Amino acid sequence: MFRKVLVANRGEIAVRVMRACEELNVGTVAIYSEADKDSGHVRYADEAYNVGPARAADSYLDHEAVIEAARKADADAIHPGYGFLAENAEFASKVEAADGITWIGPSSEAMESLGEKTKARTIMTEADVPIVPGTTEPVTEPEEVKSFGEEHGYPIAIKAEGGGGGRGMKVVWDESEVEDQLESAKREGEAYFDNDSVYLERYLEQPRHIEVQIVADHHGNVRHLGERDCSLQRRHQKVIEEGPSAALSDELREKIGEAARRGVAAADYTNAGTVEFLVEEDPDRDGPLGPETNFYFLEVNTRIQVEHCVTEEITGIDIVKRQLRVAAGEELDFEQDDVEIDGHAMEFRINAENAAEDFAPATGGTLETYDPPGGLGVRLDDALKQGDELVTDYDSMIAKLIVWGEDREECIDRSMRALREYEIGGIPTIIPFHRLMLTDEEFVASTHTTKYLDEEMDTSRIEEAQQQWGGDTGDGSSEDEESVEREFTVEVNGKRFEVELEEHGAPAIPAGDVDVGGAQASPPQPAGGDSTDSEEFAGDGETVDAEMQGTILSVEVEEGDEVAAGDVLVVLEAMKMENDIVASRGGTVSEIAVEENQSVDMGDVLVVLE
């Protein structure tokens, strides 16, 4: 087993991995950006290293900075968690090549073959795993999309090779949309995965999203741990996950599970992963979907999933520990027949968003109240404590509530109780939305599909739930504290050291520089990294501001351009979705204040119109 593991991630998943390490008597190392210097995963780790400014590209996504932190800490393994570098085959290969450091995950070769969606489709076809009609080679020209539409019909899904979770996927409903959607999918693929290759699939209009948890070792053993139903989605983003699926018959779930095992075995895959499928829903069914139901391979997530906790609760198998043991060369300690599904579990993503405002992410705030639920069958994965400032530079998920029951009915009842107990004050969350869904007829009957939230549900019900159960969501600002907790944080050779003093009724200590062995600790900079509190613009016309925090995907205009009301000025990515920023009136572009791949905060000036 390893001596010390660096977790190349943040928040609740970093703490989750560190807890598994601690139970195996393995030391833990955190990395953090400037925005995360006071975050929970930094507090939990045995030691922590600063890897750069708030912008993810300059910190959590910086290959060399992460590996250098592992060397400084003398860590002998790196666990990527999920997101960030977890599915980056190039980074995995660099870790594999690093002397004395082990990559905790599938090999870079397997990640590349299964991460590239067209390669994955070819592997699955050879393993006799059914796939949605689509291309096995990337497409580059609109004519190829139109030809596919003529052969297979519309709608068509254009998907980025390296994409996932809805990012890099565009739906073409008819031939008139081909050019715009193809360009948009390629642009997202280039911006987020450094790969503008896309492929095509027939877009299924009434699918369920079913995924199978896989664990495989280096001794030829491949096990599946049952399925999870992730059909409740908003814009292709999972909201509530559960297992086992109430929509599948035992015969169908066995067929899907065995198909997943065949596929990953054919790819010579090791460690944990998830094989995702689309299952055709039958709106007229009376009872579970039978073994004759069509199901199709969607993709393989070559990492631990956000919702792995659901499987852990119904199998009793610690998936993260198995990741560590497999990476250390150990053989899996259970047979396929040993896997038993006990009861039912659901996971609720606790996002700092206001569901009544189109799930708009919070732009700041303090956890003035944080009182999570407890009791039998209730699990909380988080990295929070009361008084924490909300970090808005990354994903809006702040915690996960996982609830187990002897059956689905008890799980729903217990989930409702746990969500009622869960008190979070100072920021908005989607807890009211979750409470609403547990009373929703379609969800309770498990007849919903991935389209339900976006196309069928009455959004006024979400607004009513937010009003009824929203509670204190704060105003996005923090008040001065009467007591002073004096926390001195210094870094020596990049390693974090802390000295803490607490005094009530004392004035704040002036934020001067602290010199320790040649290293300096200075007052924290704004979360945007290089941004300043104010900025002057030469243009004296109307400013077009960012409506939310995000990243600039593209700038569609140039200085001097004449634009009309409704013209797209900038494309802003926020929460894995493209948002067109349009002109509210006509005018001339006098100044452009942003550039591609730049991070912006809510209220930042994007364009000036005269």
Automatic annotation (TrEMBL):
<dbReference type="GO" id="GO:0016874">
    <property type="term" value="F:ligase activity"/>
</dbReference>
<keyword id="KW-0067">ATP-binding</keyword>
<dbReference type="Pfam" id="PF02786">
    <property type="entry name" value="CPSase_L_D2"/>
</dbReference>
<feature type="domain" description="ATP-grasp">
    <location>
        <begin position="121"/>
        <end position="328"/>
    </location>
</feature>
<protein>
    <submittedName>
        <fullName>Acetyl/propionyl-CoA carboxylase, alpha subunit</fullName>
    </submittedName>
</protein>
<keyword id="KW-0436">Ligase</keyword>
<feature type="region of interest" description="Disordered">
    <location>
        <begin position="507"/>
        <end position="538"/>
    </location>
</feature>
<dbReference type="InterPro" id="IPR000089">
    <property type="entry name" value="Biotin_lipoyl"/>
</dbReference>
<dbReference type="Pfam" id="PF02785">
    <property type="entry name" value="Biotin_carb_C"/>
</dbReference>
<feature type="domain" description="Biotin carboxylation">
    <location>
        <begin position="1"/>
        <end position="458"/>
    </location>
</feature>
<keyword id="KW-0460">Magnesium</keyword>
<dbReference type="Pfam" id="PF00364">
    <property type="entry name" value="Biotin_lipoyl"/>
</dbReference>
<dbReference type="InterPro" id="IPR001882">
    <property type="entry name" value="Biotin_BS"/>
</dbReference>
<dbReference type="InterPro" id="IPR011761">
    <property type="entry name" value="ATP-grasp"/>
</dbReference>
<feature type="region of interest" description="Disordered">
    <location>
        <begin position="457"/>
        <end position="486"/>
    </location>
</feature>
<dbReference type="InterPro" id="IPR005482">
    <property type="entry name" value="Biotin_COase_C"/>
</dbReference>
<dbReference type="InterPro" id="IPR050856">
    <property type="entry name" value="Biotin_carboxylase_complex"/>
</dbReference>
<dbReference type="Pfam" id="PF00289">
    <property type="entry name" value="Biotin_carb_N"/>
</dbReference>
<feature type="domain" description="Lipoyl-binding">
    <location>
        <begin position="535"/>
        <end position="610"/>
    </location>
</feature>
<keyword id="KW-0547">Nucleotide-binding</keyword>
<keyword id="KW-0092">Biotin</keyword>
<dbReference type="GO" id="GO:0005524">
    <property type="term" value="F:ATP binding"/>
</dbReference>
<dbReference type="InterPro" id="IPR013815">
    <property type="entry name" value="ATP_grasp_subdomain_1"/>
</dbReference>
<dbReference type="InterPro" id="IPR005481">
    <property type="entry name" value="BC-like_N"/>
</dbReference>
<dbReference type="InterPro" id="IPR011053">
    <property type="entry name" value="Single_hybrid_motif"/>
</dbReference>
<dbReference type="InterPro" id="IPR011764">
    <property type="entry name" value="Biotin_carboxylation_dom"/>
</dbReference>
<dbReference type="InterPro" id="IPR016185">
    <property type="entry name" value="PreATP-grasp_dom_sf"/>
</dbReference>
<dbReference type="InterPro" id="IPR011054">
    <property type="entry name" value="Rudment_hybrid_motif"/>
</dbReference>
<dbReference type="InterPro" id="IPR005479">
    <property type="entry name" value="CPAse_ATP-bd"/>
</dbReference>
<dbReference type="GO" id="GO:0046872">
    <property type="term" value="F:metal ion binding"/>
</dbReference>
